Automatic annotation (TrEMBL):
Residues 105-179 form the OB domain. Residues 50-65, 211-228 have a biased composition (Polar residues). The keyword DNA repair applies. Residues 197-302 form the Replication protein A C-terminal domain. It is found in: Nucleus. It comes from Gossypium stocksii. This is Replication protein A C-terminal domain-containing protein. Residues 50-74, 209-228 are annotated as: Disordered. Component of the replication protein A complex (RPA) required for DNA recombination, repair and replication. The activity of RPA is mediated by single-stranded DNA binding and protein interactions. Required fo cell division in meristems. Involved in the maintenance of transcriptional epigenetic gene silencing (TGS) at specific loci (including some transposons) by regulating histone H3 acetylation, 'Lys-4' and 'Lys-9' methylation. One of its GO terms (molecular function) is single-stranded DNA binding.
């Protein structure tokens, strides 16, 4: 959970007690005079799991998992927010967090109860606000290598996946599980969660019941570009009109059908060769697109995929 002490934000629980002087290069310029009650929105259990929990997962398949990635974007969220998310009754259900329709989420927390099987890996995730059960399908060698990189119980990981509901219990069908190597990422993730909570809640208050924002990432200025990411509250397509030309070139290449179908994603060197641009420029563009929730790293920090449906 987050706690205010002496004007500094501290993340309490587990091995991580305090972060001072962390880099904010990957965090949007998001706060001014807004106030936020962290205890209310992110209260919950500590990082360390106290006992094993039995897991029940939807009888989905790897192909269904791939279809499930077809959504309108990616939202940084806490387990508490996910547990309180409402669900529509449509045939293809959407979850709603702070009035935003979302199926794909990013969660950062501690892994526990890791269970390796021939076709999948099942585990629990505790982010300090609650716990959620996750499943990662293993259909290719790259999937197996990704999960082998996770040491086991007690490891902090970043999980990107598709929300689903089974017998009234929310679960995460993961398609990217990466170990946290820099604990600043935990702090940055919670700051992102606060930012999107405040921004989306503000849209609801200003627009009333008729406001139905469809995009997970609301308009804000980034420190790298200083360009607002334009958001259309009605359209289900992400509006990239505010992006610089090179950012759109990178995104367009990642969104090509042949690249979307590649499980391991596209290497930054391939992007550099195809777009005839330095690797550092490619990384800057990817960092921007990653903050916008449009791309994510797959098997390592050099391979990236576009979030489908954006």
């Amino acid at each position: 959970m987050l706690k205010e002490s002496g004007g500094k934000t501290k993340l309490l629980g587990g091995k991580v007690k305090q972060f001072q002087g962390f880099s904010t290069s990957r965090v949007p310029n998001m706060f001014s005079s807004s106030q936020f009650d962290a205890a209310t929105a992110f209260s919950g259990g500590g990082f360390m799991p106290s006992q094993s929990q039995s897991s029940q997962f939807v009888n989905s398949t790897p192909s269904q998992d791939k279809q499930g990635r077809d959504t309108q974007g990616l939202l940084s969220a806490t387990v508490k927010q996910i547990s309180e998310a409402s669900q529509s009754g449509d045939e293809k259900p959407n979850f709603t967090i702070d009035g935003v329709h979302v199926n794909n989420v990013k969660v950062v927390g501690m892994l526990f109860n890791k269970n390796l099987r021939s076709s999948d890996v099942r585990f629990g995730l505790d982010d300090g606000t609650g716990r959620i059960e996750c499943i990662r399908w293993v259909t290719e060698s790259a999937d197996a290598r990704e999960m082998d990189a996770i040491d086991g119980d007690g490891t902090y990981v970043r999980v990107i996946g598709h929300l689903q509901n089974f017998q009234g219990k929310k679960q995460l069908n993961a398609f990217s599980v990466r170990p946290v190597t820099n604990f600043d990422e935990i702090t940055c993730h919670f700051i992102e969660c606060i930012h999107y909570h405040l921004q989306n809640s503000k849209v609801q208050l200003e627009g009333g019941a008729s406001a139905q924002p469809q995009m997970t990432n609301s308009s804000f200025s980034t420190p790298v570009r200083g360009q607002p990411a334009s958001v259309n509250d009605v359209s289900v397509q992400y509006n990239t009109d505010g992006f610089k030309g090179f950012d759109k070139l990178v995104l367009n290449y990642l969104q090509q059908p042949s690249n979307v179908d590649r499980e391991i994603g596209v290497h930054v060197n391939e992007l550099s060769q195809h777009l005839k641009a330095p690797v550092e420029k490619i990384k800057d563009a990817i960092e921007f697109l990653e903050r916008e929730g449009l791309v994510y790293s797959s098997i390592d920090d050099y391979h990236y995929k576009a979030v489908e449906g954006c």
